[in-house]
Amino acid sequence: MKVCVIGTGYVGLVTGVCLSEIGHDVVCVDKEELKINMLLENKLPIYEPNLDKLLLKNIEGKRLVFSKDIASAIRSQDIIFISVGTPPLADGSADLRFVEEVAREIGNNLNGYKIIVNKSTVPIGSGDWVSMIINDNTPDNTDIEKKSKIKIGESYNKPHFDVVSNPEFLREGTAISDAFSPDRIVLGSSSKRAIDIMIELYKPIINQDFEPLDNIYNQMGKKPVPVITTDLVSAEMIKYAANSFLATKISFINEIANICEKAGADVKRVAHGIGLDKRIGERFLNAGIGWGGSCFPKDVTALTKIAAEYGITTQLLNAVINVNIQQRLKVVQKVQEVLKIVKGKSIGFLGLSFKPDTDDTRDAPAITIMNNLANLGAKVKAFDPIVKVAPDSLNAKVILCQNIDGIFMDSDLIILATEWEEFYKIDYKKLGNLMREKNIIDGRNFLEKVKMQELGYKYIGIGR
Ligand code: UGA
Description:
By secondary structure, the protein is an alpha/beta fold. The chain folds into 3 domains: 2-230, NAD(P)-binding Rossmann-like Domain (Rossmann fold); 239-320, N-(1-d-carboxylethyl)-l-norvaline Dehydrogenase, domain 2 (Orthogonal Bundle), CATH 1.10.1040.10; 324-460, 3-Layer(aba) Sandwich (Rossmann fold), CATH 3.40.50.720. The protein is 43% helix and 13% strand. The chain is built from 20 helices and 14 strands. A 6-stranded parallel beta sheet has the order 3-2-1-4-5-6, with helices on both faces. The chain has a 6-stranded parallel beta sheet with strand order 11-10-9-12-13-14. Helix 5 links the parallel strand 4 and strand 5. The radius of gyration is 25 Å and the shape is elongated. The model has no long low-confidence stretch (mean pLDDT 94). Bound molecules: uridine-5'-diphosphate-glucuronic acid. Uridine-5'-diphosphate-glucuronic acid (UGA) is lined by residues 168-172, 243, 246, 250, 284-286, 288, 290-293, 295-296, 354-355.
């Protein structure tokens, strides 16, 4: 099938590459020239494990091309994915400027029946709004002269397109496996024709009957992937509800962790103990410094704003957000408890990204904690395996070290902020000798408490 993906961020790029991998003819477009130029040189503008290999394979297989010419891509392809960003506005609601721009462009270039697929996370009801903008911008409807000649009772030609909401559930760092073996595929539309075509598009994934590439995505499920077909609004709500529920699970276990800490229980044992109950489930019960990234913070807040439009106060979601804000600040309090005076102390951070296996630092808990400690007068150093350039959100006083030794050298405290696998393998015995004081706060409960204590560290976890 002929697919156009507009927007080459995490979601757009992974979607485009994976659809080409299952045999579709994909054109990925973006108005950001820099990104397209990189992709035209076979370079990725983001870090996502194994995406580079699939990108090259499909460029060479001539199923995947990149272009700056959005109009031509819309005209030549039949299924148009909108995968542009919906960043938060100052009040927390979603900024739909880019979606609107793309919808107008689609309207201007509509030639024959097309399916418009909304992959961007958009507020409830945006599918109909996108439909309206496309409709208003089709050549027929923007032709004033033609419009003025319309007689009463006559209508314009109804433009030939259907809008489908197809929310994305990819996680950064495991996006390829998530794309090929999703827990479910959600398709929301009022058009049966469009839904049937979308099911055809995803058929190899739904049936799990394509050849997996070893070591790249070998976790294919044996059973067919469930497809949820629904109306547009419900599909849009599924996306917000899923991310909000996962964030709620994390804030819940973090609140339990805080009680465990005071009462002398170990939240890791508690999470395991409740998680084995199938009604609860073990995943997303890792207590720590809380959730961040480009999705949970944006989506949970946006849902509270959507609710407010209907006069609903989201008491639970507000608490979920507050617990998460406090969880970051609690680390600063832990630092004060250990070091007493923070001013003039040297603190090394392991990890900057909001989670392992990604270079994404958007709303990373590590950054909030670093900025707070730098403001309190600490000398803050950070090392991340992938993030090598300081993000704008990071206090300019924070020093980015190019190797792990620099984090331990003359430090009074280490904070593990991101659970990168290589941080598990660090020679803590050797590097501990470089420290002034052997204190470690394990913000992800990632290391073995007893082992660290045996190595002479004062080990402080979260809720243990
Ligand atoms: C999230 C969802 O998991 C995806 O299903 C969704 O498609 C995506 O948002 C999106 O909306 O695009 P992602 O933001 O990549 O994916 O990362 P997650 O793995 O969900 O982690 C989010 C945050 O929660 C991270 O900061 C992580 O460290 C934290 N987390 C996660 C915990 O603190 N504890 C846990 O048990 C799990």
